[in-house]
Specification:
Distance between the termini: 32 Å
Largest sheet: 2 strands, antiparallel
Strand order of the largest sheet: 1-2
Shape: globular
Helix content: 40-55%
Radius of gyration: 18 Å
Number of helices: 8
């Protein structure tokens, strides 16, 4: 929508091309996913003139990914898995210093078979960004809904920045399984559900104080 508003290209043209990775296989030196370029469209500051067209925008994003992300991915690393974790970290965390800690929570839950229960995956399934209503997370039927499905979603839910990729590559080692956001956009972390409930009450108190 931002590209369309700036008259760079129509939104639908960009979306359609982003779902055809095979059309860009020849311009990069790394393997592209088959179904969608989600996760590979590197978020950065770009100088995009009007009427540039979606194809050239995507080329620039893929080239930026090749320059900035590909060099930090170890050889043999599963790029789709890495970018999927990194994309959740990107949308869940506002402060860079917390990204490795949240990546650690994701890996801890995956290791013990605990559902990830990340709201951002539900919003991706809905294809809209909003505040989820009571119980809504369990009514959205989609393989991307990590409340209803164990394990990782089928692929990235956005294109992560470099800090989130680095966090997914080196998640912090700890025992935390839960976190809750505070008004200052930092998080409280806990290892048990009882501790998590106590942190939720702290969040509510902080929100009341902020108001």
């Amino acid at each position: 929508r931002k590209l369309e508003q700036a008259e760079v290209c129509p939104a639908q043209e960009y979306i359609d091309l982003a779902n055809k990775p095979q059309e860009f296989a020849e311009i990069v030196k790394f393997p592209l996913p088959k179904g969608s370029l989600e996760g590979y469209l590197f978020p950065d500051t770009y100088d995009l003139p009007p009427l540039m067209g979606a194809r050239e925008v995507i080329k620039r994003q893929l080239k930026a990914f090749e320059t900035k992300v590909v060099p930090v991915i170890p050889k043999g690393q599963d790029a789709t898995r890495l970018l999927t974790v990194a994309s959740m970290v990107e949308l869940e965390v506002a402060k860079d210093f917390e990204r490795p800690k949240v990546a650690g929570v994701i890996e801890n839950r995956l290791r013990i078979g605990m559902p990830l229960q990340i709201d951002a995956t539900v919003l991706y399934a809905l294809q809209e960004w909003k505040v989820l209503g009571p119980g809504e997370v369990r009514r959205v039927e989609s393989p991307y809904n990590t409340y209803l499905n164990n394990g990782l979603p089928p692929g990235p839910i956005g294109s992560p920045g470099l800090k989130s990729v680095e966090a997914a590559l080196a998640p912090e080692s700890h025992d935390f399984l839960f976190y809750v956001a505070l008004p200052d956009r930092t998080h409280l972390f806990s290892t048990t559900y009882d501790q998590h409930r106590a942190n939720i009450n702290k969040r509510k108190a902080a929100l009341r104080e902020a108001r």
